[in-house]
Amino acid sequence: MDAARAVRRIVATGAIDGEWRVSEYVVRPLEPDTWDGFAAMVELHNGVFGGCWCTWFHTMSADKERTYEANQSLKRRLVEEGRAHASLVYHGDRAVAWCEYGSPDELPNIYHRKQYEEELDVLPDFRITCIFVDKSFRRRGLSALALQGALDLMVAAGGGVVEGYPHDTDGKKKSVLYNGTRTLFEDAGFEFVRSKGTGNCVMRRTLP
User: Fold this and answer.
1) Which of 78, 91, 99 is nearest to 35 (CA)?
2) HSE of 183 in the Cβ direction (CA atoms, 13 Å)?
3) pTM of the entire predicted model
4) pLDDT at 172
């Protein structure tokens, strides 16, 4: 099932005409038709996290070039091949947030991977690896909206076990939050599984 049809199946959360709408925001899947919106947001933020283009989790460190242009090309190719997934939050014609998700095969690289694999009990069907909000649209709850949009897309794709690896900040401010906070995931129905590294954790939820 293609992503557009998948979104049309989201009824309980308020899909209208194939798109998930909350107030003035619309959630759409990352796909070739929405690449331009995604790319515009990434370019506005200088490639995001040092020119990553949200590719870090797609490949192992030894296998990836570390330039803005190479990362941009890699991300676009993965999107065109259907091997990069995310929910995109739009405000009008402008993408203003995203939540990256995919299978472990699609997103094999996570922080503290050695510890994670040593303590592995269940390999999830999906993992959530990155949440990002445009600097002009922060503090509006868009991280939660992007996360919920990704969960709805995973339900439409068949559901299963989903993991997230947010920052366990204990209420303290942190300058870089590449995957949200433990509280964000708890509010979305995830349960704490274990700690991972320093200040991160494994959260899990099963989707129908």
Assistant:
1) 78
2) 7
3) 0.86
4) 62
